[in-house]
C-alpha cells in the first residue's frame, strides 16, 4: 500500500561518478530532507528547495534515479513528473533527489570542439614543452613574486584547464601543426614549488582525475599551462595587461602596480566560486586562442577562416578590420592606429584549401584596446544557444552579463534579444517559417484525429489571421456528457507576433473545466470573436439550447444571439466582481465598502427574487453609485433569480489561467509547437480523468454522491402533505411546495444544483420513488465516463519542415503586429491655458534695464 508521505533527501554540491558497470553514483555535497505528498505542487517544492540551497530557482533542476536504474537521471519539471516520482517510490519511506544548478559544470561545454576538423595548435609565443612538474607564470624581476594558495575549486579548474590544453600544445619548431602532448597516468598530481623569485607561482596541488593527459611547462615569457593563459600574461613581448574578469563568483585577474611603475598579475578567488564552470569557459577560450597558428594553416573556406579569426580576436582581446573580404582572399589588420598586426589568407586551387599566406603576430598597440572584436549574429546565436539549452527562460540581461564576463564583449539589450531569437530559431525552428507549416499541420490533425475540425484563414496579403481547432474527443465529450454550458475567454500568447488565444470550455460532472475548442487569432476584436463563434457553431452542431458565459466587457452578447438560436448569454461572476471593485469610488455609508462585494455575490447566488432585492438594497444603503452600477450591469445576465438559462453561478472556472499554465513553458516556441503543446496537455487531461473514473462504482460521481447524502441526513421531522400525485407540500421550519413532474421546489435548490433538495427527498421517501431517477444525468458516473471516453491521438513528426516546393497558395506569412493602444491615463493631463485679456508681464533686460527684450538679445554695446 502506498504511503501518504515521501521524504525526499535533496543532495547538492557533489558530483556524479561513473562505476565500472556504467552506473552513476553521487559523491560529496550536502543534503536536506523535504517531505512531499499527493497534494504537493511542483512549484512549491522547487521554491522550498531553492530557499534551502539559496540558489536561483530559474537555474535549478531536480533529478532522480528510478528505483532499479542507476544509469539514467530522470528530470522533474512539472506536477505530473512529481506525481510519477511519488508513484515510483510509493512503497519507500525516502527517495534521493539531486539538485543541479546552472553553475554546475556542463559536459556539453567541456566537450565542445572548434569548427575546424583539424584541431588548433598553440599560440605563436608558446615555448617547447617541458616535463618540469610546475606551472610558473613570469613576473617582474624587481618585485617579489606573490604566492596565492588557491582554494580546492580553483585548483580543480586549473587542473581541468591544464589537462584540456595538453592536447593542443606544440613545439615552436613543429611547423607541421601536429599536436604534441605528454601523457601521464590518470589521477596524477603535480606539486608546484613555492617561493621562487623569478616567476609568478601559484602554490597548489593540481589533480585531474578525469583527464588522461596533463602537461606542465617551465617558466617562459608566455606560459601555456592553463586553458586561458592570456589571463596570466604579464607585460611581455605583446605588452598585454591582464584585465579579464569572471564576475563575483569566479576568479579575476587585476593589474597591480609596484613601486617602480611595473605591473604584475595577481589572482583573486571568491570563496563561493565554482571553478568547474569557469574551467569550461576557459577551455573554450583556449580553443579560440589557438584557432590561428600562423603561415601555412589551412581552412576549408573563407567562412571557416573568418570564424576562426573572429574567435581568435575575442580570445586575445583586440579588434580588427577586414581590408579585403572576398570569397578567394581575406586580409585583416588590427583596428588600433599604427599597430603592425596583420594577416592575409587566400584560396589555393591546388590543395583546395583557404591558406594563411602572411601574418605579422606582433601587436605594437599593446594588444588590448579595451573591447573585443564585435560579434556576428551567428557567433552570438551559437553562444546563446548553449545557455538556452540549460535554461530556456534565460533573460537577455543575464545573458549579456555572462557574455561580458566570459568574453569581454559588451552588448546592448536589443543585440542580445536578436541573438536569443536566432538561437531559438536554431533550436526549435524559425518562428516566421512555422506559419508555412499550418496547411500541413491542419491536414495532419484531421488525418490523425478523424472527426476533428481544424480551419485557418489568411488575409489578402497571405498573412495569418485565424486558426480554429476542436478535437473529436472534445466534441464527443461535450455532446454526450457535459451540460449545455460553454465558457468563453481569451488570453494573449505573449509571443513575438502578439497572437491571441480564444477559448471555449465546458464543465464536466465534477464542475471541472473540459476544453471544447480554441482558436489563435491575430487580434482580439468583435470580428475575430464572431468568426470563432461561427466556427464553434459548425463544430458543435447540437439542437440543445446552449448557455454562453463570458466577461461582460468583451461585448459578446450580440454575437451570441445572432449566431446561436435560442441561446442564453450570461456574465462571468468572477469578472463581474473584478469590474465592480474597479468601479467603486465612494463615499460609503452604513456597513462600508467591505460589505459591497459580499452583497453583490449574495445577489448573484440568491435563488429567489426577494433575496436578490435584499442584497441590492444593502448595496444601495452603502453607496448609491455602486447601486447604480449594479442595476446597469444587466442583472438578468448574472443573477440566479432572474437568469433563464442553465445555472452556472456556483461554478468558478479559471479558463485563461489554465491555458496559460499549459503554455507558460512554450511561449517562445513557434506556433506549431505551441499548438501541439496544448494538444498534448488536453490529451493527458482526458486520459488521466478517464483512468481516474474507471473504478467508480456509485451511480452518481463521488462528489455528487456525498452531497446527496448530506441532503438525506437533513430530512428528519419533515411533514409531507399530498396535494396530488405530483404536487406536495413539505413542512419544516418553513413551507415548501414540491412538483416532481417539473423537478422543482419552491426553495429553488433542486433547480439550482440539478440534485433533489431535502424537501424533494422527503417526498420520495413517502411515495417510495427512487431519488436517483430525479438526478441530472450529467452527474451520473456513466455520463462522466462518456465525457472522457474518446482519446486525442498522438501526432508524429511535428517538427517536419515546410516543403520548399510548396505552392504560393500554401504560403502563410506571420501576422502583422499591431501596436496596442495605450491605456487611458488615471489622471488627465492638465492643460495650461491663458485667460483672455490678462496682461502678461513684459520682459526686462538686466543689462540696459529696458523692456521688451532680455540680456541675450540686447543690442546695446558693452
UniProtKB/TrEMBL annotation:
<dbReference type="Pfam" id="PF00564">
    <property type="entry name" value="PB1"/>
</dbReference>
<keyword id="KW-0863">Zinc-finger</keyword>
<dbReference type="InterPro" id="IPR006564">
    <property type="entry name" value="Znf_PMZ"/>
</dbReference>
<dbReference type="GO" id="GO:0008270">
    <property type="term" value="F:zinc ion binding"/>
</dbReference>
<feature type="region of interest" description="Disordered">
    <location>
        <begin position="795"/>
        <end position="862"/>
    </location>
</feature>
<dbReference type="Pfam" id="PF04434">
    <property type="entry name" value="SWIM"/>
</dbReference>
<dbReference type="Pfam" id="PF10551">
    <property type="entry name" value="MULE"/>
</dbReference>
<dbReference type="Pfam" id="PF03108">
    <property type="entry name" value="DBD_Tnp_Mut"/>
</dbReference>
<dbReference type="InterPro" id="IPR004332">
    <property type="entry name" value="Transposase_MuDR"/>
</dbReference>
<dbReference type="InterPro" id="IPR000270">
    <property type="entry name" value="PB1_dom"/>
</dbReference>
<dbReference type="InterPro" id="IPR007527">
    <property type="entry name" value="Znf_SWIM"/>
</dbReference>
<feature type="compositionally biased region" description="Basic residues">
    <location>
        <begin position="828"/>
        <end position="847"/>
    </location>
</feature>
<feature type="compositionally biased region" description="Basic and acidic residues">
    <location>
        <begin position="848"/>
        <end position="862"/>
    </location>
</feature>
<feature type="compositionally biased region" description="Basic and acidic residues">
    <location>
        <begin position="802"/>
        <end position="813"/>
    </location>
</feature>
<feature type="domain" description="SWIM-type">
    <location>
        <begin position="736"/>
        <end position="768"/>
    </location>
</feature>
<protein>
    <submittedName>
        <fullName>Uncharacterized protein LOC104586161 isoform X2</fullName>
    </submittedName>
</protein>
<keyword id="KW-0862">Zinc</keyword>
<dbReference type="InterPro" id="IPR018289">
    <property type="entry name" value="MULE_transposase_dom"/>
</dbReference>
<keyword id="KW-0479">Metal-binding</keyword>
Amino acid at each position: 500500500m502506498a504511503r501518504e508521505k515521501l521524504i525526499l533527501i535533496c543532495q547538492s554540491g557533489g558530483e556524479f561518478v561513473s562505476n565500472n558497470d556504467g552506473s552513476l553514483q553521487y559523491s560529496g555535497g550536502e543534503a536536506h530532507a523535504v517531505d512531499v505528498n499527493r497534494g504537493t505542487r511542483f512549484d512549491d517544492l522547487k521554491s522550498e528547495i531553492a530557499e534551502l540551497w539559496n540558489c536561483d530557482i530559474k537555474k535549478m533542476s531536480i533529478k532522480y534515479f528510478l528505483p532499479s536504474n542507476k544509469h539514467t537521471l530522470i528530470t522533474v519539471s512539472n506536477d505530473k513528473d512529481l506525481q510519477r516520482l511519488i508513484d515510483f517510490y510509493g512503497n519507500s519511506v525516502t527517495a534521493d533527489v539531486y539538485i543541479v544548478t546552472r553553475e554546475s559544470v556542463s559536459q556539453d561545454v567541456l566537450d565542445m570542439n572548434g569548427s575546424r576538423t583539424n584541431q588548433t595548435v598553440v599560440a605563436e609565443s608558446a615555448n617547447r614543452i617541458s616535463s618540469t612538474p610546475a606551472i610558473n607564470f613570469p613576473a617582474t624581476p624587481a618585485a617579489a613574486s606573490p604566492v596565492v594558495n588557491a582554494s580546492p575549486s580553483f585548483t580543480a579548474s586549473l587542473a581541468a584547464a591544464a589537462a584540456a590544453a595538453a592536447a593542443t600544445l606544440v613545439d615552436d619548431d613543429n611547423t607541421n601543426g601536429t599536436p604534441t602532448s605528454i601523457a601521464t597516468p590518470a589521477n596524477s598530481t603535480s606539486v608546484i614549488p613555492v617561493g621562487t623569485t623569478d616567476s609568478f607561482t601559484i602554490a597548489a596541488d593540481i589533480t585531474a582525475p578525469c583527464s588522461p593527459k596533463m602537461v606542465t611547462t617551465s617558466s617562459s615569457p608566455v606560459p601555456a599551462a592553463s586553458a586561458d593563459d592570456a589571463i596570466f600574461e604579464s607585460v611581455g613581448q605583446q605588452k598585454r595587461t591582464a584585465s579579464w574578469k569572471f564576475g563575483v563568483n569566479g576568479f579575476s585577474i587585476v593589474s597591480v602596480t609596484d613601486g617602480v611603475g611595473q605591473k604584475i598579475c595577481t589572482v583573486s578567488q571568491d570563496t563561493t566560486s565554482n571553478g568547474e564552470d569557469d574551467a569550461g569557459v576557459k577551455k573554450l577560450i583556449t580553443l579560440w586562442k589557438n584557432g590561428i597558428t600562423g603561415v601555412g594553416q589551412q581552412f576549408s573556406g573563407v567562412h571557416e577562416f573568418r570564424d576562426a579569426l573572429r574567435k581568435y580576436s575575442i580570445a586575445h582581446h583586440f579588434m580588427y578590420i577586414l581590408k579585403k573580404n572576398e570569397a578567394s582572399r581575406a586580409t585583416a589588420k588590427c583596428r588600433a592606429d599604427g599597430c603592425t598586426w596583420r594577416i592575409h589568407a587566400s584560396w589555393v586551387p591546388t590543395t583546395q584549401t583557404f591558406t594563411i599566406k602572411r601574418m605579422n603576430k606582433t601587436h605594437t598597440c599593446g594588444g588590448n584596446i579595451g573591447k573585443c572584436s564585435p560579434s556576428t549574429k551567428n557567433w552570438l546565436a551559437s553562444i546563446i544557444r548553449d545557455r538556452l539549452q540549460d535554461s530556456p527562460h534565460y533573460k537577455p540581461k543575464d545573458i549579456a552579463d555572462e557574455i561580458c564576463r566570459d568574453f569581454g564583449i559588451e552588448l546592448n539589450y536589443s543585440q542580445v534579444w536578436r541573438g536569443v531569437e536566432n538561437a531559438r530559431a536554431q533550436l526549435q525552428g524559425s518562428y516566421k517559417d512555422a506559419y508555412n507549416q499550418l496547411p500541413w499541420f491542419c491536414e495532419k490533425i484531421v488525418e490523425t484525429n478523424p472527426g476533428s475540425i481544424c480551419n485557418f484563414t489568411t488575409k489578402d496579403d497571405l498573412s495569418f489571421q485565424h486558426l480554429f481547432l476542436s478535437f473529436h474527443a472534445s466534441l464527443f465529450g461535450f455532446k454526450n456528457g457535459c451540460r449545455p454550458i460553454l465558457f468563453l475567454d481569451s488570453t494573449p500568447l505573449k509571443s513575438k507576433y502578439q497572437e491571441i488565444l480564444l477559448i471555449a470550455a465546458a464543465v464536466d460532472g465534477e464542475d471541472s473545466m473540459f476544453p471544447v475548442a480554441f482558436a489563435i487569432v491575430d487580434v482580439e476584436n468583435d470580428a475575430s470573436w464572431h468568426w470563432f463563434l461561427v466556427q464553434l457553431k459548425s463544430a458543435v452542431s447540437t439542437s440543445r439550447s446552449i448557455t454562453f458565459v463570458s466577461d461582460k466587457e468583451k461585448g459578446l452578447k450580440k454575437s451570441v444571439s445572432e449566431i446561436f438560436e435560442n441561446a442564453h448569454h450570461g456574465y462571468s461572476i468572477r469578472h463581474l466582481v473584478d469590474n465592480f471593485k474597479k468601479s467603486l469610488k465612494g463615499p460609503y455609508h452604513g456597513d462600508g465598502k467591505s460589505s459591497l462585494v459580499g452583497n453583490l455575490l449574495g445577489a448573484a447566488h440568491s435563488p429567489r427574487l426577494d433575496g436578490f432585492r435584499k442584497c441590492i438594497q444593502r448595496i444601495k444603503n452603502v453607496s448609491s453609485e455602486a447601486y447604480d452600477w449594479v442595476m446597469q450591469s444587466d442583472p438578468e445576465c448574472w443573477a440566479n433569480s432572474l437568469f433563464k438559462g442553465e445555472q452556472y453561478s456556483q461554478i468558478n472556472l479559471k479558463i485563461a489561467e489554465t491555458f496559460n499554465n499549459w503554455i507558460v513553458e512554450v511561449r517562445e516556441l513557434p506556433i506549431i509547437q505551441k499548438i501541439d503543446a496544448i494538444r498534448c496537455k488536453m490529451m493527458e487531461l482526458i486520459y488521466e480523468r478517464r483512468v481516474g473514473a474507471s473504478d467508480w462504482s456509485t451511480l452518481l460521481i463521488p462528489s455528487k454522491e456525498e452531497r446527496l447524502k448530506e441532503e438525506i441526513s437533513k430530512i428528519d421531522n419533515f411533514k409531507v402533505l399530498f396535494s396530488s400525485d405530483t404536487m406536495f407540500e413539505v413542512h419544516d421550519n418553513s413551507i415548501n411546495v414540491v412538483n416532481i413532474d417539473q423537478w422543482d421546489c419552491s426553495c429553488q435548490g433542486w433547480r439550482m444544483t440539478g440534485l433533489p433538495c431535502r424537501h424533494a427527498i422527503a417526498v420520495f421517501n413517502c411515495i417510495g420513488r427512487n431519488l436517483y431517477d430525479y438526478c441530472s444525468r450529467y452527474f451520473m458516473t456513466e455520463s462522466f465516463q462518456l465525457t472522457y471516453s474518446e482519446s486525442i491521438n498522438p501526432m508524429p513528426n511535428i517538427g517536419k519542415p515546410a516543403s520548399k516546393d510548396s505552392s504560393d497558395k500554401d504560403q502563410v506569412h506571420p501576422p502583422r503586429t499591431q501596436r496596442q493602444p495605450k491605456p487611458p491615463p488615471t489622471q488627465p493631463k492638465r492643460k495650461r491655458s491663458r485667460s483672455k485679456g490678462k496682461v502678461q508681464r513684459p520682459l526686462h533686460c538686466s543689462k540696459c534695464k529696458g523692456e521688451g527684450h532680455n540680456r541675450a538679445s540686447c543690442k546695446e554695446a558693452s
